[in-house]
Amino acid sequence: MAKKLNKVDVVTVGVGWAGGIIASELTKAGLKVVGLERGEERTTEDFQMVHDEYRYAIRYELMQDLSKETITFRNSLNEQALPMRQYGAFLIGTGVGGAGAHWNGDTWFFSPYDFEIKSMTDKKYGKNKLPKEYTLQDWGITYDELAPYYHQFEKMAGTSGELNPLRPERTEEYPTPPMKSTPILDRYMEAAKKLKLHPFRQPSANISEVYKNPDGQTLNQCQYCGFCEKFGCEYGAKSSPNVTVIPTALKTGNFELRTHANVTGIIHDGNKATGVRYVDVQTGEEFDQLADVVVLTSYTLNNTRLLLQSELGRPYNPETGTGVIGKNYCYQITAVATGFFKERFNAAMGAGSLGTTLDDYNNDNFDHSDLDFIHGGSITMKQLGKRPINENGAPSGTPRWGKEFKAESIKWFNRSIPVTSQGASMPHRNNYLSLDPTYKDAYGNPLLRMTYDFTKQDQALYKYITARCAEILTEMGAEVVEPKELTEHFDIVPAQNDHITGGVIMGADPETSALNNYLQMWDVDNVFVIGASAFAHNGGYNPTGTVGALAYRAAEGILKYREQKGQLVKRESSNKLA
Amino acid sequence: MDEKSKSNMSRRKFIRNSSYAAGGLIGGGILGSIIGTNYFGETEQPSTGSSKESNFNRALMYFTRQSDFQILSAATERIYPKDENGAGAIQLGVPYFIDHELAGAYGHNEREYMKGPFFSGTDYQGYQTPLKRHDVFMAGIRAMEQESKSNYDASFIDLEGEQQDEILKKFENDEVKLKHVSSAYFFEMLRTATISGAYADPLYGGNADMEAWKMKNFPGSQMTYLNKIGSEKFIEMKPKSLRDHLS
Ligand SMILES: Cc1cc2nc3c(=O)[nH]c(=O)nc-3n(C[C@H](O)[C@H](O)[C@H](O)COP(=O)(O)OP(=O)(O)OC[C@H]3O[C@@H](n4cnc5c(N)ncnc54)[C@H](O)[C@@H]3O)c2cc1C
Ligand code: SF4
């Protein structure tokens, strides 16, 4: 029998960026918030021994423990899904701070085009630009409506950056100036300009100078230590929930952070949630935490899984195209070309989001009339800090082991560098999330099943963008330029991209979306679902700026809901179903 | 073009130059324990992991038969051989790294999903075997010896390098049958573990004296590159290990 715990104003499931922002905003407003986090406590002090590639970047110490819980995966509807038994294609965070404790820090605003992608595509290219299997939708919010929340996230995080010449709608400067540049990034900048493109120093949460945020939290200056992506920052220089919103929430005295608490379901009574059930993973005891408002901040996968498991909302059915929970699961298409140079660079130095980028082939910034895809991707050169176990690249044809492998991989270690793109990913009717009929997690609940494959749109976009990446490297004077090919089907094994979205999407129409634009569920007024799960498609940038902005907007929505109850947004029903 | 730029910035200067001193902020991270340690090489500590002194880590934790360990050692040396660049897998301690890893969480798949049912799956669904990594290694090593005996009538460790390569290639190309796992999968694990052992921090028992890092000109775990990141020149540095950060 689960033990009932006294009711609080708000309970959040998961304490990463989304959970942290909800906690900080609501506790500042005087609400009592309990944050349930399945993983362990984590602060800057835990990162004193973090410069360990093997432990953190190979064995993925900071990531979710897959022995307890994973996903099952198949490429298509008629395959048997099998468990992702070890990490590969993408990584999932756990513990206080979530993936925000070990992210890179690339902090973007999605484009105005992203939020109204369906209307704008139809208007410019006609209704049949993409075949009807692509379930493209507007987000039920415009860029202008979301812009203030984006800025709020940036000011909290202290983002360092420089204005993007192709994004004139951005009116405010970044809170801190861009990071230092490096010879290789300068070369990228020059080459791109020669190609008449519009490069700029990309926005970064590896802070360029000491910064005090509006909540009074201080972030330190990045030391370019080269152990950033997949690592925590030992300096407290990388904006993370652990050094910003979580301490802010704790400081109010209104926030209770409970770790080792794995939520297994949302308790509800018809159309109203009454709390959540969780297991103390250290003792096995079960608890019901009662609350007025339940906020899911457990990332794309568990946000979807908890709703399906708790039978809240209408599950998506790919056969009929009806239902919404699990719909529009998207990945991101990582186009990449590698340049091999004659000279050596200080490639081991770097930071998670130290980069120069351009948007000429992103969004609808180029004409797609004669192309068989829409959208595109930002194209970036980054100096992340190369590390020796993971980086053994050499021009193709080099053996993968033995004498020649050793000599070549040593030779190129400081001489090769990639240009990569975050390619947008469009939703497809057959790419979706559901519960697995066979495999269970450590608590006896079904695993989430992912059905996903690259689409024709993905392949066309990949091909086009990879060629653009290669052009820039050639202009930079690389001796050898090698574009990488996309695998025929999506493969769960090789590392590709950590940005997975959809499953609990927002929109204007309850028939085709799960959430309104405050991320409040259409079907259950006191449940808010925050994260990249809300994205109706995945754009050409990293997602967290948008997750953060949506979290700030949801926090405002929750405060409004306390006042007025019921739905915060009027339903717009779609013509076709009316 | 081996421009050498000596990194002889003193600790006092580092603290003055860094934002910490400027803002009076100690982040609580490594810097919290920097005072009194030798981040900047002012006092050299004797290196650990060297074969010159007795190293009690160099003993077997997982393998019970020395012959299995010797076969493993010979195989890793073919993957990462000693050459004009420097040390090979054996000298670096890679076989000990693998032995120690197999004895622990890695070898026992503690953080992987190991529940059944097991099906072989498509080429895109990743590894699907009930065998733990240590089982796979053991099966692979024994099968390498078997191949060697039946093809050359000799133990793997007594073969010529090229002969050992032939056997390894058979595994790589999935031409050997193992129980419940493909030989290509075993080979991939062996290759990855060898590279990991060569280049991981010496704390794991490989990368002795940081020799593999030196070959690659990888500086290891430095405190900061704040004043070096913009350098036009390639800066060679004496690498630092995590040992250097323990106060
Ligand atoms: C290596 C890596 C690098 C990245 N780099 C970037 C980048 O540069 N830029 C960018 O924009 N994005 C990046 N991302 C993505 C970014 O980290 C995520 O978008 C962001 O962290 C999402 O925040 P979140 O709060 O929604 O989810 P998370 O950070 O995943 O937090 C969710 C939390 O919920 C907890 N939880 C889940 N299920 C339960 C449950 N049942 N019960 C209790 N708790 C639960 C988890 O343990 C976790 O702590 C990166 C991701 C990774 C893995
Ligand atoms: S690169 Fe900068 S932000 Fe990233 S971990 Fe190192 S010091 Fe921190």
UniProtKB/TrEMBL annotation, chain A:
The keyword Oxidoreductase applies. Keywords: FAD, Flavoprotein, Oxidoreductase. Residues 160-181 are annotated as: Disordered. Residues 427-551 form the Glucose-methanol-choline oxidoreductase C-terminal domain. Gene3D superfamilies: FAD/NAD(P)-binding domain. GO terms for molecular function: flavin adenine dinucleotide binding; oxidoreductase activity, acting on CH-OH group of donors. Pfam families: GMC_oxred_C, GMC_oxred_N. InterPro entries: FAD/NAD-bd_sf, GMC_OxRdtase_N, GMC_OxRtase_C. Coiled coil: none annotated. Residues 217-330 form the Glucose-methanol-choline oxidoreductase N-terminal domain. Belongs to the GMC oxidoreductase family. This is GMC family oxidoreductase.
